Structures are given as structure tokens and as C-alpha cells.
Amino acid sequence: MSGEAAESFGFSDDDLAGHPTVYAPGTFAGKVVVVSGGAGGIGKATAWLFARLGAHVIVAGRSEGKIADVVDRITAHGLSCSGATVDIREPDSVAAFCDRVWQERGHVDVLVNSAGGQFPQPAIDFSVKGWNAVINTNLNGTWFMMQAAARKWRDAGTPGSIVNIVVVTTHGLYGVAHSVAARAGVIGLTRSVAVEWAPLGIRVNCVAPGAIETEGWKVYTQEARNTYPRSNPMMRAGDAWDIAEASVYLSAPSGKYITGELLTVDGGSQLWGETWTTGKPDYFKGPD
Predict the structure, then answer these.
(1) What is the band of 212 on the pLDDT scale with cuts at 50, 70, 90?
(2) Which pLDDT band, with edges at 50, 70 and 90, does 216 fall under?
(3) CA atoms of 144 and 155, how far apart (whole Å)
(4) What's the rounded Cα separation, in Å, for the pair 37 and 147?
(5) CA 115 remoteness from chain centre
(6) Is the pLDDT of residue 10 over 60?
(7) Tens of pLDDT along 29-60?
């Protein structure tokens, strides 16, 4: 994991190419998997893992350059991967993306919604623009991708699986209230449409990461980062591979009887612990 330099976070591509996995190499042979937000962090680890398990992976996102870099690195290892740009905040962009992917590949079996973003800030200081930016990406964007994929599966009469990457919304995550609100909406959507879409053979689940070390940690202060390994009873941070393998578990035959579920991967922090992305206020630190 982090090793080359003091400010290096997460896995390198070499790590992702060879990191051990419990899954068999051909688990997703012949399958097509779309990973939104696949150019970095959890999304990139997820793309690597599905590709290593035999899937053709489509890395989706807004940055053509970042997507191309991930695709080049994955295909250099003899794995099947391609990229496509999409702005998940725009329904027309999402619809065009799905039309293009289904036309080029013939089918899609799994959609992992990993795209999203937020910035740490006390909620009382959120601007309208900042609030809307997070809600539009994390809630609306995820929904647009979910609905567009479901319509493709319905129209083709084929089953599908959706995994939404969210956050732990029930306890102990502070400083990103806009993201908590958006992801809580995604969890609610997931539980509702899991019932509505069951007759279509579409399973919909969520994975909620706790403190996961990725390059995204750079947006948080050193003070905040120093507390993350002690934010849960296991007294350590998780990594992107933990979330990638959870996504595979829900998408593979291992998850064939699971829908509408929230799989929390947080070292137990929802039971004991707290994560302050903006640093813990003195008020809550107690007496010296």
C-alpha cells in the first residue's frame, strides 16, 4: 500500500495487478462490467479486480486522460478493458453512454457506481453551490446510472446487478454532511428499487466503506488523517481492495440471493468509533 513516499496513499497499479484475491480468475469470464469513477481510488481497484477475474471492464468517468491511463495499465497486463467518458450528472450524457456501451458490447452484466465526490467542511458553512454539486453527483448521478442500466436490462429481458458505493450514514462520520445526505438517499433508493426491480431479475445493493486509504485522503488535513486508524475497534484503516472484493462478492454468484442490502466495510466503526474529516472539535475531546 502506501510506501514510496510520505504523501503516497493507496495502491499503485503494480499492487493492483498482483494483490492476492480470494476469487477464482475466471469468475467473470464472458461478463461485462461498468465501473463509474473507475479512474481512481476505490473505482480503480474495483476495475482491476473485475478485469483480473475475466470480465471486460468499462472504466467510465469525466476525465478522458485519466481513463485512458487506467485502461492502458490494465490492458498492458493482458486483461480486457476499455474506457468511456460520461457526465453522470447529466441524464442525456448517461443515456448516450449506455446506448454506446450496449451497442458496442452487446450486453452489460454489472454496474458499479463508484463515481462521486465531496469536500470536508463544517455543514454550517456549505454554500448553495457546494451543496448542490455534491447532491448532483452523489445522489442524482448515481440514480441516473441506475435507472438507465435498469431500462436496458428490462428492454433486453436480461438480468443485471448494481452495486452502489456509499458511505456509513448511520453513525460517526462528520464533516461531509452533504455526502452523508446524498448517500443516505442512494441507500433508500437501493432498498426501494430492489423490490420494484426484482421481477426484472435486477439485484441492487450498496457497499459502505469506512476509513479507506486512497489517494482521496489528500483532501483531508494531516490532523484528520492521523485519527482515521483509530476510528474503529480494529484500530486501522481499510484499503480499496477491501471495497473491491465486497463489490465482487455482491456481483458474483456468491451474491445471487442478496438484494436491497447494505454491506458495511468499516472495521466496526458504526458500532464504536467516529470519523471527523475536518478534525475533531475541542468541545468533543473532553478535558485534558
Answers:
(1) confident
(2) low
(3) 17
(4) 17
(5) 6
(6) yes
(7) 999 999 999 998 999 999 999 999 999 999 99
Cα of first residue to Cα of last residue in the chain, in angstroms, is 35
Residue 3: the pLDDT is 38
Positions of E strands within 152-261: 160-165, 173-174, 202-209, 212-213, 238-239
Phi then psi dihedrals of residue 193, to 5 deg: -75, -20
Q: Is 58 exposed, middle or buried (0-12, 13-18, 19+ CB in 10 A)?
A: buried
Question: Of 145, 127, 242, whose CA–CA distance to 186 is shortest?
Answer: 145
- What number of other Cβ atoms are within 10 A of residue 36's Cβ? 28
R_g over Cα of the chain? 18
| Grid cell digits, residue 288 | 485534558
Residue ranges of domains in the chain, CATH in brackets:
13-266 (3.40.50.720)
Phi, psi of 179 (to 5 degrees): -70, -40
CA 22 from centre of chain: 20
Tell me the helix, strand and coil percentages in the chain, rounded to 5: 45, 15, 40
Contact (CB, 8 A) for 71 and 83: yes
* Residue 269 per-residue DSSP state: T
CB 11, CB 34: distance < 8 Å:
no
User: Residue 97 is inside which H or E element, if any?
Assistant: helix 91-105
